[in-house]
Design brief:
- Chain B: This is DUF6510 family protein.
- Chain B: InterPro entries: DUF6510.
- Chain B: Pfam families: DUF6510.
- Chain A: It comes from Streptomyces rochei.
- The complex is a heterodimer.
- By secondary structure, chain A is an alpha/beta fold.
- In chain A, 16% of the residues lie in helices and 32% in strands.
- Chain A is built from four helices and eleven strands; from the N terminus they run βββββαββαβαββαβ.
- Chain A has a six-stranded antiparallel sheet. Chain A has a five-stranded parallel sheet with strand order 9-8-7-10-11, sandwiched between helices.
- In chain A, α3 links the parallel β8 and β9.
- The N terminus of chain A is likely disordered.
- In chain B, the strands form two sheets. Chain B has a five-stranded antiparallel sheet with strand order 1-4-5-6-7, with no helix packed on it.
- The N terminus of chain B is likely disordered.
- Chain B is built from one helix and seven strands, in the order βαββββββ.
- Classes of the chains: A alpha/beta, B mainly beta.
- At the A-B interface, β3, β4, β6, α4 and β11 of A face β1 and α1 of B.
Chain lengths: 243, 95
């Protein structure tokens, strides 16, 4: 039986997942598409745990967000390669296409958008925090959702933008604003710098919009504080930190 | 995850370790902190690692709300202290 809070399948232990394709998003960001037989489906915002097992039996587990809405047995993950990391550099660049890892999921019923929620969306992404929000944007597009949506996307510089082509394509009811924190493109009206209260003003969405914030811990804490100060009710703000 | 020794994650990271022992998603479970009375979901807890030992703390006052330690074949779980119980949302029964 489906659970009411996720509307998708329950995780059933570890499942084998075969790497089908890898796409470069940024210098260190990749999206990896896996085929997971028996995958029960998921909701935008959910994640999986990934388990790697070394030849000597040593295991490492990490969490990665699902980047696309449910589509059969295809599971797309966003991987930000962390320098010196134990798992992410291997997944990002070394795991061969065709190789198998293990995944557990879908996981999480808190940071999800169930697609039937009425009303508008305000999405705040920091760096690779765009990944679970991209699943929401794609689900919105797939269902021709017609409530307004704003994405504020904080990146260090223009080279750090994931899904650049997809986000730049004109889409009705969607407003995308990129906030450059260290280097803005020439001629940009907004000077480089972290997100401020001014960035939340004058957005084409009502104040009771559902807010989803994902990114590094510092970005999430700061952004959630700004949202509350701007009058967004605390129970409309959902956050996910990745350290 | 970038630097698990100096920063924190949140309760979303507990979904995986707890999924093996709960039949419902645990991250929507609700509590009111017995120390500072802040209500929060399990997903909103501040979670400190590094894994496999994770400590979930109240986002308001950092009081310990749960501890979970994963071992091969085992999960150790301490849920709440004092009045800090969690309220879990049960799945609706089929008619």
């Amino acid at each position: 039986m489906a659970t009411p809070d996720t509307g998708a399948g329950r995780p059933a232990g570890w499942r084998p997942a075969a790497l089908v394709a890898r796409e470069k998003q940024t210098a260190t960001g990749r999206t990896l598409r896996f085929d997971v037989p028996g995958w029960p489906g998921h909701l935008p915002g959910q994640h999986v745990d990934v388990r790697l097992t070394a030849d000597d039996g040593y295991q490492a587990v990490r969490s990665y967000s699902l980047a696309s809405p449910a589509h059969g047995t295809a599971v797309e993950l966003g991987i930000q390669s962390v320098p010196g990391g134990e798992v992410s550099p291997y997944l990002a660049d070394d795991l061969p296409v065709g190789a198998e890892i293990e995944v557990k999921g879908p996981l999480g019923g808190w940071f999800v958008w169930n697609g039937s929620s009425d009303g508008s969306l305000l999405l705040l992404a920091g760096g690779s925090g765009i990944v679970p929000l991209m699943a929401m944007l794609r689900a919105r597009r797939d269902t021709r959702y017609d409530s307004p949506c704003v994405l504020l996307y904080s990146v260090r510089d223009p080279q750090e933008i994931w899904y650049a082509d997809e986000l730049h394509s004109a889409e009705p009811f969607l407003t995308v604003r990129v906030l450059h924190t260290r280097r803005a493109p020439a001629g940009a009206a907004r000077p480089a710098g972290r997100i401020t209260a001014a960035d939340l003003q004058g957005l084409p969405i009502p104040a009771d919009s559902r807010c989803y914030v994902c990114g590094p811990t510092g970005f999430v804490e700061h952004s959630a504080d700004l949202l509350r100060a701007a009058g967004h009710p605390a129970d409309h703000i959902r956050t996910e930190r990745f350290g | 995850m970038n630097d698990p020794f100096t920063t924190h994650l949140d309760g979303n990271a507990l979904a995986g370790p707890l999924a093996d022992v709960f039949s419902v998603d645990p991250t929507t479970a609700w509590r009111r902190c017995p120390s500072c009375h802040l209500p929060s979901s399990l997903g909103q807890l501040h979670v400190y690692g590094p894994g496999p030992g994770l400590t979930g703390r109240c986002p308001g006052c950092a009081d310990i709300a749960l501890r979970a330690v994963s071992q091969p074949g085992h999960l150790w779980l301490q849920l709440g202290t004092g009045g800090g119980a969690f309220r879990f949302h049960l799945p609706t029964s089929a008619p």
